[in-house]
């Protein structure tokens, strides 16, 4: 499984703002928005393009556009904060939604919502979720996509823990990960260390 770490200075400065416990919700959401733009930009490097003719004010030339724009799938709640930035860079894209909440005792995901096309064969998917901790939530989401025929999944996240990356690797699902950082570990509550806390709570408040 390919893992791309976007260690660009601008990405790392936004990540640092998100890690800082003093950052308020509005600034956290702004940093996530900007960082997502950078992650999408890097993820899109490998997207195939097609040419088409355009005419400038001076002369005809070849233009480019994405040959197959991806379906965007934010994982609620925390992935919602990445949706607008991703759609801004990929305005041709459609969007699906998956709602998952991690059980505080078992740490396994509980699905409470899904709104996805029934057929995803031939459609690349960009999954948006800031955190890969145990990897359970992303594995669940990517399995939903693979069950619909998807064979090209890119997971965009802000932070990933080694255990989560290993779980996604073991899943055998057709995916790659684009992240701003690989953190060192999980604590007893399965929070990423050093991490940034709970990305859902920090954007939208505690439940
Ligand atoms: C967080 C996060 C991921 C998941 C990561 O969501 O946004 O979806 O946990 O943990 P995992 O890799 O161990 O599955 P959470 O369940 O807290 O829900 P929220 O987005 O509504 O806050």
From TrEMBL:
A Pfam family of this chain: UPRTase
Every Phosphoribosyltransferase domain range: 5-205
Cofactor(s) essential for the protein: Mg(2+)
UniProt EC number: 2.4.2.9
UniProt pathway annotation: Pyrimidine metabolism; UMP biosynthesis via salvage pathway; UMP from uracil: step 1/1
Keyword annotations: Allosteric enzyme, Glycosyltransferase, GTP-binding, Nucleotide-binding, Transferase
GO molecular function: uracil phosphoribosyltransferase activity
UniProt similarity note: Belongs to the UPRTase family.
Protein name: Uracil phosphoribosyltransferase
């Amino acid at each position: 499984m390919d893992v791309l770490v976007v260690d660009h200075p601008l990405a790392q400065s936004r990540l640092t703002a998100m890690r800082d416990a003093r950052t308020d919700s509005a600034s956290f959401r702004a940093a996530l928005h900007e960082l997502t733009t950078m992650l999408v930009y890097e993820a899109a490097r490998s997207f195939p393009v097609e040419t088409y003719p355009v005419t400038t004010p001076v002369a005809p030339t070849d233009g480019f556009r994405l040959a197959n724009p991806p379906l965007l799938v934010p994982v609620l709640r925390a992935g919602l904060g990445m949706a607008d930035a991703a759609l801004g860079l990929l305005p041709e894209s459609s969007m699906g939604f998956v709602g998952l909440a991690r059980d505080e005792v078992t740490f396994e995901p509980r699905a409470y919502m899904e709104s996805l096309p029934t057929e995803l064969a031939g459609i690349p998917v960009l999954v948006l979720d800031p955190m890969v901790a145990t990897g359970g939530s992303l594995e669940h989401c990517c399995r939903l996509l693979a069950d619909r025929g998807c064979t090209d999944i890119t997971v965009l996240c802000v932070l990933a823990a080694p255990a989560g990356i290993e779980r996604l690797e073991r899943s055998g699902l057709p995916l790659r990960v684009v992240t701003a950082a690989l953190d060192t570990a999980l604590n007893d509550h399965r929070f990423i260390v050093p991490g940034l806390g709970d990305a859902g709570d920090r954007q939208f408040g505690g439940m």
